[in-house]
Task: structure prediction
Amino acid sequence: MLELHGKIQEAVDTIRRHWNRPPGAGIILGTGLGSLVDRIEVEATIDYDAIPNFLKSTAVSHRGRLVCGLLEGVPVIVMEGRFHQYEGYPLQAITLPVRVMKALGAELLIVTSATGGMNPNYQCGDLVVVSDHINLMNGNPLVGINDDRLGPRFPDMSEPYSRELIDVALGVARRADIVAHQGVLVAVTGPNLETRAEYRFLRLIGADIVGMSMVPEVLTAVHAGMRVFGLSAVTDMCLPDALQAANVEEIIRVANEAGPHLVQIVSGVLAHEAKSLGDA
Ligand code: HPA
Result:
């Protein structure tokens, strides 16, 4: 991990040449959830191609650029398109942008994703405020020699997702009449969706939703000492005894439909941040 420090710095130097504000938050947008960008007062956009050590975004509906600007008055740096383990990339490279966000000054990471719903009380299109996670990715971005400048060897995981922001988000959803649950995410490698037997297992071990991302970024952010807010859209229902064949076009369509609700909740969380920063 020691050479990671230099890679982070190279990316930071390039981004600073395009946009020289310290971000209040870094935001990573998941599959079909790009509509948040329409709400940003954009000050700079930077293609991943132009940033040293950033990977190429190969997943469908992931654009591959950083959008920098203001959302609810808060300076934000937004990844329009993320990197996944199933694209064949190492987890440390996948999560480099989180390190870069932190090095630019972001103390909060907001992560969004499309997920399969395993809790039978959920419906397609509902939002889930992530309250905890289970890492079944068969990998961890923190493995390797620890660079103490980036974070501790054994980061605590008693509250990876800020309890305060979970409550803020649930309050925003309630007031806006948006269905938002709080639930446990399990992260798997993908790229295949799961078998019935796997969904049964994942539900049994305590997960409400399943996805192929988010957890590596959250582990990195917690290691870096950032607060984290995670929000997922349920894009397909994964009930083992009533499983329908899912397809990616349908998953993207449902995620797009959930987009406006997701935008409302993320905006509410940022408005809360702006107020706390203002009060401080
Ligand atoms: N499984 C894993 N990841 C997903 C799913 C799913 O059913 N739906 C959206 N992302």
Q: What stands out?
A: Residues 114-116, 188, 193-194, 210-212, 235-236, 238, 251 surround hypoxanthine (CB under 6 Å).
